[in-house]
Amino acid sequence: MNDPLPANVRRFIADQIESVAQLETLLLLRTDPQQSWNAQELASRLYISEKMCRSMLEDLERRKFIVRDPLKKSVRYECLNFEADATVAVLTELYRDRRVAVISEIHSTPISKVQTFADAFRLRKDDKL
User: Please, which domain of life does this record's source organism belong to (predicted)?
Assistant: First the structure.
């Protein structure tokens, strides 16, 4: 199946997803929104470092996909934006059925973000210092 991913999913990936690990974290949390996870549990389940997991959780919280329970030192999925939640639902299905296409989209996006950032610092021949 070589059909491109839906435009809203491609836009969501470009705007919200920075890595496959981050997507897998989001999808795992969404499988059972009532279940609370701490960073150590998630890191172990996803085979990533706890430091990396904490960083991704901070980002997902900032993007309002998860909520933190400071008493339990845990997080759980809670996306109050209906459109974003619906897109995550579609992305869940696509990741199950068309994993390579989703991963390819994720890997194609950060390069353009990094390139745009790097280009901002590029000196050109006609630039005056």
Answer: Bacteria
Q: Which CATH number fits domain 7-108: 3.40.50.150, 3.30.530.20, 3.30.70.20, 1.10.10.10?
A: 1.10.10.10
Low-confidence ranges of the chain (pLDDT < 50): none
Q: Which two tokens stand for residue 118?
A: 């790097």
Nearest to 7 by CA among 81, 116, 105, 112: 105
Q: What is the pTM of this model?
A: 0.81
57: Cβ–Cβ under 8 A, 6 or more apart, which residues? 25, 39, 42, 66, 68, 75
Q: How far is CA 7 from the centre of its chain?
A: 17
